[in-house]
Amino acid sequence: MKGFQSYPSLAHEDRPPKTHKTEEISALFKKMDIGLKLKLNFKIDKENRKRQEKSLEFQLGNSAEDTSDIASFVTIDTKSLDNIRKDRTIFERLKDYLTTDTLDFFRQRNEAEEADRQSRTRGREEEDAEEGARKKRKTGKVVLVPQNAGPCVTTFDTLLFDTIDAFPIFPLFLFTNKNLNLINTHMPELKRMKILHIEGKPHVLDLKEIAKWVKEAGGTSRNENLDFIQWSQAAKNFYQFECLRDKDLGKEAPRALFYVEHFAFFINQQDSEDFFAYWLKVETRLRKEHQSKLYAFDSDTYEREWTLVRAERISDLKYATSPSIPTSTQTSSSSRAPAPDLFPTSFDTASKVAELVSLTFPSTFA
After folding, report:
1. Hey, CA dihedral for 240, 245, 250, 255, is it positive or negative?
2. Cystine design at 230: which of 58, 177, 226, 329 (Cβ 3.0–4.6 Å)?
3. For 30-42, how does the pLDDT look when each residue is reduced to its tens digit (9 = 90+)?
C-alpha cells in the first residue's frame, strides 16, 4: 500500500502467510476500524524494524541468530488515509499511531496538492491579468455612416496586432477585403493559441486554423491563390495596418516606410498586371525576408529581381507563340484596365519618401 515501507521477504515465495493466514482473517481485516488498523500497523512496523536490526547484525557476523520473517501490514486504502490527512480532528486522535512512512506519504500528498493549487492560481491570475489588460486598451472612436456614404472603412481587431507581434511572417491573404470582413465578423469564435515565450503569455489567433476556416468560408486561403485585384486590396490594407502598429510614428514608422516602397515597386511597373503571375512569388519571398530579417528596401535588389521576372515572362511568351506550338490568344496590356494607382509612380529617390508616406489610397478596391 502506498505510504508504508515495503520490506523484502526473507523467506521462500511459497512460505505460508502469517499476518493474513486465512480468508476469514483477511475479511476481518477489511472490516476493521481505521483506528485499529493504524494501531496494528504501528505495532507491526515497530517489530519489523527490530527484525531488520537483528538481520543486519547477523549478516555482519555480530550475531549467531538470524531474524524471523517480517510481517505484512494491514491494508489501508488511500481514500481512508486522505480522510485522516485532511480532517484535523481525526488526525489529532490517531497521530500517535502514524508510522514514519505514513507521515511521509501525507507530506508528499500535501506538497503535490499545493503545487497543483499554485499552478491553477497562477493560471487564473494570468487569465485575469490578460483580461484586465484587454479591457484597459482604448478602443477607437466609433463613427456610424450611412450605407450609401461610400466605401467601407477597413478596421483591424486588436487581436490581429497581438498575432503579428507573435508571428512576424504574417500571411498577406488575410488582408483582402473579404477575409478581413470574415475575421472582424467572426472574431469571437476564431480559435486562439497561448504564446508562452512572450511576456504576459498572450492568446493570439491560430494562423493554421484561421487559414482552414477562411477556406471553408469561401475566402482566399493561400498567398499564391491571390489574383491581381485581391493582391492590390491586401497590399493597401496591410500597409494601413502597418501604419497603425506604431501609434507614435504612423506612416513614418520603419515598417510602414518599407512596405510603401515594396508594394509600390511591383504595382507601378509597366505591364504589372500582365506579369502578376510571375512576380507574385518574388514579392512574397522579398516580403518574408523583410519580416524575418528586417531587411531594408534596396532598389538595386528589386530591379535585378524584376529583370529576371521580365526575362521569364518573355521566354514563356516566345515559347507559347513559336510555330511548333498552336498560338494561344494573348491579351495585350492596352486592352486591359489600367493597374490601380494605389501608390505613386516615383518611389526610388529619397526626396520622394515624404510624398510616399503621406499618400492617400483611392477607393477603387475598398
Report:
1. negative
2. 226
3. 777 788 888 888 8
